[in-house]
Amino acid sequence: MTKRCLIIYNEPAPDALPDELDVLDQVNFINETLQSLGYQVECRGITENFFSEIREMAGGEFEFVFNLVESVGNKAEILYFIPGLLNMYHIPYTGCPVEATFITASKVLARKIMKASGIPVAGGYRVSEASQLVPGKKYILKPVWEDGSLGITEESVFTFNGTPPEILRGRNDQHWFIEEFIEGREFNVSVISGPDGPEMLPPAEMLFENYPDDIPRIVSYKAKWVEETFQYENSRRHFPEELSEKLMNNLRAAVNGCWHTFGLKGYARVDMRVDANENVYVLEVNANPCISPDSGFISAAVHAGYTHQEIIRHIINDLNA
After folding, report:
1. Which of 31, 67, 135, 215 has the most CB atoms around it within 10 Å of its CB?
2. What is residue 178's three-state secondary structure?
């Protein structure tokens, strides 16, 4: 009997930016890998008409949906509608469930839950609370909803001098927040579902090489997406051969805490900063992170010894049914 799968993804607009077009690389990669596993695959783009588009899937002749939808109408804040509708129509799907998708989409809400659960996060403030910032300390302005470094520029990092900086002008609490900037190292730690629970994959450290003092060492939009820029050409992913026992334990505790606290499934990635004392601070929990062939998640899994087929098997063995 032929095995069937439907891949759904956010249909990029004609004028889509590189971070939006990346989903097409994911679709091609997952399509090819599923076919190599013996699946007959159909791919379907999701638009702002997602209510009717998902309703039409109900009763379809496929075993499950591979959910690659990253935003709806380029709005991450309503992303949770997709798994919600798949639930409503009893359609099995990959990745994180509706609750995890909803909570982690909002960095502010996720931060509150992590703090209450004992998962370390840096101090945070609403934009309207800027007067409470400590003079002389560094902070970073971040979007509440967007991922993929969208909205993160070199100007996002600032030292508070007693008055709100110009970058805060016109920003509101609904879409932006301020976080204490942690000087130190940055790690992206991927996790995949296994038969005995979540498996932390080798931590990837982001290296910022040749950066002058006036460019903050962060994964900005330029560093992640804009080729031929200084930031893109001098930032790279690296898998350290050895990390101290303390740091590995701290990374693992944070990853496991996020997995269980948010009810993650299938695959996820947790981004963290590490200070000089090897204390970790969770920046962001990525439910259903990018899984294009050159993504951090796939690179970490391959570094751990997994084939592409094995990675996808792990993901589809942890369906939301």
Report:
1. 67
2. strand
Pair (190, 310) in one structural domain: yes
Tell me the C-alpha to C-alpha distance, in Å, between residue 211 and each of 101, 150, 203, 231, 232: 35, 21, 22, 8, 11
196 within a domain of the structure (yes/no): yes
Cβ neighbours for 149, distance < 8 A, ≥ 6 positions apart = 19, 219, 220, 221, 223, 224, 225
pLDDT interval class at 301 (50, 70, 90):
very high
Rounded Cα gap, residues 104 and 66, in angstroms: 19
CA count, 13 A, side-chain hemisphere, 141: 25
Residues 256-275 have pLDDT tens digits of 999 999 999 999 999 999 99
Q: How far apart are CA 284 and CA 77, in angstroms?
A: 15
Q: Provide Rg for the chain, Cα atoms.
A: 20
Flag whether the pTM goes above 0.90.
Answer: yes
Pairing of strands 39-46, 3-10: parallel
Q: 307 and 267 in one domain? A: yes
Tally of CA atoms within 13 A in the half-sphere of 117 that contains its CB? 19
Structural contact between residues 128 and 175, judged by C-beta atoms closer than 8 angstroms: no
- What is the CATH classification number for the domain harbouring 25? 3.40.50.2300
User: Domain check: are 53 and 193 in the same one?
Assistant: no
pLDDT reported for residue 1: 66
pLDDT (mean) for 195-221: 93
Range of the domain at 130: 124-180
- Kind and range of the H or E run holding 144: none
Q: Same domain, yes or no, for 292 and 190?
A: yes
As a whole-number percent, the residues of the chain with pLDDT over 70 amount to 99
Element (H, E) at 95: none
Q: Total structural domains in the chain?
A: 3
